[in-house]
């Protein structure tokens, strides 16, 4: 396979491919308008894409407000899972937000998503609180997790 993976900042031209990833990964996918808004209007937003030979196979994003980053989403195409790409992408995002001044990172994850929770724990995230009925598709609770970058 060779080393054909590249990480870079997401831009408007990436939205079609990012939407493909989004729709394959989530039961409540974000809309095109949501991504455009994040990239054009949200001064707190930073999004990365992961490409293999110019094909976007994953992306993640965060909002950096003062010294705290909040991860909005992370997704890897199903056919590329199990290769530690989500972990590598998340590490790259954490490095990015840290360079922007973030001293801590938070996120929400479905209480049933044990695979994602174990990845986050591996990277030092700790359990915070529960957001009751956070996900509107099935009213599943979200586990809030956080990591201190100091």
UniProtKB/TrEMBL annotation:
Domain of life: Bacteria
Subcellular location per the Swiss-Prot or TrEMBL entry: Cytoplasm
Organism: Peribacillus deserti
Location, primary (coarse class): cytoplasm
Chemical reaction(s) catalysed: N-terminal L-alanyl-[ribosomal protein bS18] + acetyl-CoA = N-terminal N(alpha)-acetyl-L-alanyl-[ribosomal protein bS18] + CoA + H(+)
Any one GO MF annotation of this record: protein-N-terminal-alanine acetyltransferase activity
Name of the protein in its database record: [Ribosomal protein bS18]-alanine N-acetyltransferase
Keywords carried by this UniProt record: Acyltransferase, Cytoplasm, Transferase
Enzyme Commission code(s) on record: 2.3.1.266
Role of this protein: Acetylates the N-terminal alanine of ribosomal protein bS18.
Family in the record: Belongs to the acetyltransferase family. RimI subfamily.
Keyword Acyltransferase among record annotations: yes
Lineage of the organism: Bacteria, Bacillati, Bacillota, Bacilli, Bacillales
Class of enzymatic activity (EC top level): transferase
InterPro entries linked: AcTrfase_RimI/Ard1, Acyl_CoA_acyltransferase, GNAT_dom, YpeA/RimI_acetyltransf
Signal peptide (residue range): none
Limits of the N-acetyltransferase domain: 5-150
Pfam families xref list: Acetyltransf_1
